[in-house]
């Protein structure tokens, strides 16, 4: 019998069928009810395994949620807007989401919350920092390995790139970053977090022309959300001293609306 389960790929049903049969005899299920419960058990088991595979592949460093975000600490941020984003229409339309703001204001929390929501809805996700991404591409020892690594970042429905602005890229790394954004342009969504205004990306990439071309693709279909608030990590040390508030992140002229409503 076990061979039949494997041939039909009913591995989840094989594990639960004895209990289902026992319950069916005890509660006198009809054949239709038993069949429905058996198929449901198989499908539920497959979804749990698929979710586990997606979660492992995503390399998400934490389980964050929109409900777990303290919007009262960041009053300039629209909770309604973030909950609208959590319906994941931006993933389905290939729209990018960019969080701009000082360190500690919740950019990574919100990006992880949206990424976890995408995973739960069956989307493929990959999380990386810009430094990790640049190093992974630059360290490819031959063209075949480079293509393989680039595909890894192109394939997911949603790519999260955290900590843009903390590391200045080399010329080669900047070109790899540009090529990746170009490859995903209008094909897959990117969530990006940055503590650096767009006007400073020329310094980040070491090339003003390349930065302009990259931002043109990144921002063409994008929700740009500026978080103009204080650091969560510093709030216990700051107390009520408003003079320690961080300065607002600035969006350059010509960038899309921040979407903060």
From TrEMBL:
Gene3D superfamilies (alphabetical): P-loop containing nucleotide triphosphate hydrolases
GO biological process annotation, one example: DNA replication
Signal peptide limits: none
Segments forming domain AAA+ ATPase: 93-226
GO MF term set: ATP binding
SUPFAM superfamilies from the UniProt entry: P-loop containing nucleoside triphosphate hydrolases
Keywords tagged on the record: ATP-binding, Nucleotide-binding
Residue span of region Disordered: 235-261
The keyword Glycoprotein appears for this protein: no
NCBIfam families, sorted: IS21_help_AAA
UniProt similarity note: Belongs to the IS21/IS1162 putative ATP-binding protein family.
Name this polypeptide is given: ATPase AAA
Species in which this protein is naturally found: Tengunoibacter tsumagoiensis
């Amino acid at each position: 019998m076990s061979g039949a389960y494997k041939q039909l790929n009913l591995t989840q049903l094989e594990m639960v069928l004895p209990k289902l049969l026992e319950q069916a005899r005890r509660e006198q299920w009809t054949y239709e009810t038993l069949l429905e419960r058996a198929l449901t058990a198989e499908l539920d088991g497959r979804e749990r395994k698929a979710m586990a595979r997606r979660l492992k592949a995503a390399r998400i460093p934490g389980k964050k949620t929109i409900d777990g975000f303290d919007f009262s600490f960041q009053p300039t941020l629209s909770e309604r807007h973030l909950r609208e984003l959590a319906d994941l229409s931006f993933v389905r339309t290939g729209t990018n989401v960019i969080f701009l703001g000082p360190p500690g204001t919740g950019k990574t929390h919100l990006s992880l919350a949206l990424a976890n929501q995408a995973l739960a809805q069956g989307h493929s996700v990959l999380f990386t920092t810009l430094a990790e991404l640049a190093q992974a591409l630059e360290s490819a020892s031959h063209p075949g390995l480079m293509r393989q690594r680039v595909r890894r970042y192109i394939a997911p429905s949603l790519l999260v790139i955290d900590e843009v602005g903390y590391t200045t890229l080399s010329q080669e790394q900047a070109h790899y970053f540009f090529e990746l954004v170009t490859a995903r342009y209008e094909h897959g969504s990117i969530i990006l977090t940055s503590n650096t205004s767009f006007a400073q990306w020329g310094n980040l990439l070491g090339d003003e022309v390349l930065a302009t071309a990259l931002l043109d693709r990144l921002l063409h279909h994008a929700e740009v959300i500026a978080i103009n608030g204080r650091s969560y990590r510093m709030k216990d040390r700051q107390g009520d001293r408003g003079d320690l508030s961080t300065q607002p992140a600035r969006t350059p002229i010509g960038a899309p609306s921040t979407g903060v409503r």
